[in-house]
Amino acid sequence: MWVPALLVPLVVLFLLLVLRRHAGVEENFVALLAFLALGILLGCEVIFLKDFLQGGEYHRMNTIFKFYTQAWVLLGVVAGTSLPRLWVRFSGVRRRWLAYAWKVCLALLFASSAVFLFLGTGQRVDDRFPGPRPPLGTLDGSAFMTVGSYTWPDESNRLQLVYDYQAIQWFEENVTGTPVVAEAPLPYYREFGLKVASYTGLPTLLGAHQNEQRYDWQVGPRSDDANALYRTTDLEEARDLITRLHLSYIYVGQLERTAYPEEGLDKFERLRQSGELTVAYENSGARVYEVVDR
User: Fold this and answer.
1) Between β-strands 247-252 and 158-160, what pairing exists: parallel, antiparallel or unpaired?
2) pTM over the 0.90 mark
């Protein structure tokens, strides 16, 4: 309850500042932004939206995640406009010790807010890249994949991203137009699914997190087809899916081998042996099948 105990007096204070009659328009507007931001924070302590996390210890996560973003933006605007005025006002006070004390407190608060930048960044990099570090001085958003790895679905299974990186480079250099690429329709946050579509812009079977963001009747059949493509052992069903989904390429990487049964993936080799698929690209951890145009 210490969070509401801290927020309630601040909300009341800024409400009174908003209602002042003799303040300027700019001051009232800044007070309004602060009142709204603090009101959002207080509201999240009282109300949360029920979603698929309901019943678990993270039941408030999405409410806080979404609404705190708005509060941070509003408070950032308030701080940006208020600090210069406060600096000037305290610089002009007669009691110099009060001005120095306020500036020291401000400096300490600013320094404490920057702690994560220097300490947290290193900790996150150590967590994500326990071995070699990604290259520095590049604007290539995929460069981390040259040395990065992650574990999924548990710590015993580590996926090396360099193989996906090499396959993505092949797509970038050799594939033109907008052919449809099938890959595991898995979420992006932890599984790191849909890497090929994300980094090449090529169309795939289903976008990330569509089952969360749209009704099941809109995306459910498409999701079922995407999973059936990798799970089925029936060659006729696989042929029908390849034709109906207008596939040009089928991607089988470490993630696909982790998520789907081996017998389901073996059918792609059988289709290759029958001449219906060819191996367009392959490395130690990824294989790209191309659908033969008949």
Assistant:
1) unpaired
2) no
- The string of pLDDT tens digits covering residues 42-97 is 999 999 998 888 888 999 999 999 999 999 999 999 999 998 888 888 887 788 88
For residue 73, tell me if it sits in a domain: yes
Give whole-number Cα distances, 83 to 25, 76, 86, 200, in Å: 18, 11, 5, 44
Position 123: which residue type?
Q
User: What is the structure's pLDDT at 75?
Assistant: 96
Reported as a pLDDT band with limits 50, 70 and 90, residue 211 is: confident
Q: Count CA atoms closer than 13 A to 13's CA, side-chain side.
A: 9
Task: Report CA dihedral (49, 51, 56, 61) to the nearest 10 degrees.
Answer: -60
Alpha helices in 185-253 (DSSP H): 195-200, 210-213, 216-231, 235-244
Residues 6+ apart with CB under 8 A from 90: 98, 99, 102, 103
Domain of residue 31, residue span: 2-113
**Token pair of 289 as six digits:** 């099948």
**For the domain that residue 214 is a member of, what is the CATH number?**
3.40.50
Most confident by average pLDDT, 71-80, 96-105, 213-222: 71-80
In the structure encoding, which two tokens stand for residue 32, read together?
A: 């309004």
Question: Do residue 107 and residue 166 come from a single domain?
Answer: no
pLDDT of residue 134: 82
